[in-house]
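Input (Bile acid:sodium symporter):
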Amino acid sequence: MARPRFLPDNMTLCLIAVVIAASLFPVHGQAAVAFDGLTNAAIALLFFMHGAKLSREAIIAGMTHWRLHLLVFACTFIMFPLLGVLLKPALVPLVGDELYLGILFLCALPATVQSAIAFTSIARGNVAAAVCSAATSSLVGIFVTPLLVLLLMGAQAGESSTLDAIGKIVVQLLLPFIAGQIARRWIGDWVARNKSWLKSVDQGSILLVVFGAFSHAVVEGIWQTVPLTELLGLVVACCLLLALVLGLTAWLGRRLGFNVEDRITIIFAGSKKSLATGVPMAQVLFAGGALGTLILPLMLFHQIQLMVCAVLAERYGRRAETGAEEAA
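Output:
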């Protein structure tokens, strides 16, 4: 039986199921402490596997295209935060103060790796440059994101200092990634052969963090403090932010004279925000019941960007095929 077209992807369905489960059966007390330990181990494994999967050769191959990378980084770490700040008068009435902080956190995050590369490939863009930009964005984000969070959110960014936050992120995210890169020499081929089922490690780690975050949030009363009108407003806010970013990245690519393949890479690498990196970072940077509210915009934006960019990638891919046929 064919899958109904109106159904979202499996990861989205799992996220919805996890939020429902955490709302009905939240962990608390000693169980929550043990669950946090399990979550931290899963996050370390997640970034170890990222390091083992990422090809250094592909990164080096794309590094020479510095103009494209600078533009993608500017879109990720400058344009997104500026939009978050400039849109405050429109966003706060839609989503309220707490969810707006989650939008600011979303704007400070690095780009995705997997989906940016996948969509660039489908759209027949510059895949080597997409690999380099997305991968480097994730690594740079380990140091830049805490600074941006402090700059954008100020006292709301948490009690720990910026250096302390960066140190925790380095230990929990970067060191496992480096270990994975070192271990790639021995396990790289095995990882490549088994990448289909190893994908569940990525997704399982994210689901664990989301369950823990929403358990804390439910215990603190998130569903009593976030009304339905603000949730609907959040959908509108995420759509507005994504539409502006997609339009600006497309315009900048044309304005700066990039070819079609590079413009495709700029659109798909410069408009993404990483759920896989953002949720673990939130786990380190924030604590308590606020975590569930802060990652809610990221979870929603992530799903919207996947659905919209899938349509765009297919359209770019068909256009490329038509152009090739006409040329032939």
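The chain has one domain: 29-316.
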